[in-house]
Amino acid sequence: MSDVTTPRTTPRTALVTGAGRGIGRGIALGLAAAGYDLALVGRTRAHLEAVAEEVRAAGRRAVVAAADLVDGTAVADAVARAEVGLAEQGGIGLLVNNAGVIEAAELPFDQDDVEDVWRVVETNVRGPVLVTHAVLPAMLARGAGRVLNINSGSGHRPMSAYTGYGISKGALARLTTMLDHQLRDRGIRALDLAPGVVRTDMTAGMPVHDDRTEWTSLDEVSALVVAFADGQLDALSGRFVRAGADTPDTLLAQVDEIVAQDLRTLRLP
């Protein structure tokens, strides 16, 4: 397997954004089942509290911090509360930037509402930038931490609609590569995970999926999240994986080839 410096022991804890429902809820519960304590962050406290009860029923600690993730002050406060709430467990070991939105209408850019396009870009880029920046100081002080950005194939390929979403996911991929390039030697690992197409409220409202019969399961998503959290995928830091196409086992079997050929990253050929 490719040589990679392993960061110091990372706390078995995670902060998950957008954890109140959908993929975020599934990721939080998957991590709890794997023995992780959770900080649940999002806009709607009632949804977060419901998930927190499920996490506690699984025997794990759950800290709730409601915040608007494009508000820098609110994000800093939420992250501070999460660090304090998980202090006995070692602080935040894994950040999952899951919260995100998509345009209200499935239209090409020239027909779309530019303000709605910008709402999507701001939410999907500013949010992860703010949360990651707030989480990093404690991770760097410990010399260990992992950042998982929930991405999409839309960030790598052209689409006939949802322009803001594609722009935001391309930017998120670049954030992942920048974090890896700048902070790998200081113990930080970063990964892009595309969850495939999971049946959620968001995908249910997208006409492009009206006739879909095959969906990615949350179990497949959670398996990759837990593998990254456990350090199994550290050699792929800065790269892109996809639930439904990749599994921890297939990635580990391919890791030398991926690294040697510099695959799974956003770059010019």
UniProtKB/TrEMBL annotation:
<comment type="similarity">
    <text>Belongs to the short-chain dehydrogenases/reductases (SDR) family.</text>
</comment>
<dbReference type="GO" id="GO:0016491">
    <property type="term" value="F:oxidoreductase activity"/>
</dbReference>
<dbReference type="InterPro" id="IPR036291">
    <property type="entry name" value="NAD(P)-bd_dom_sf"/>
</dbReference>
<protein>
    <submittedName>
        <fullName>Short-chain dehydrogenase</fullName>
    </submittedName>
</protein>
<keyword id="KW-0560">Oxidoreductase</keyword>
<dbReference type="GO" id="GO:0016020">
    <property type="term" value="C:membrane"/>
</dbReference>
<dbReference type="InterPro" id="IPR002347">
    <property type="entry name" value="SDR_fam"/>
</dbReference>
<dbReference type="Pfam" id="PF00106">
    <property type="entry name" value="adh_short"/>
</dbReference>
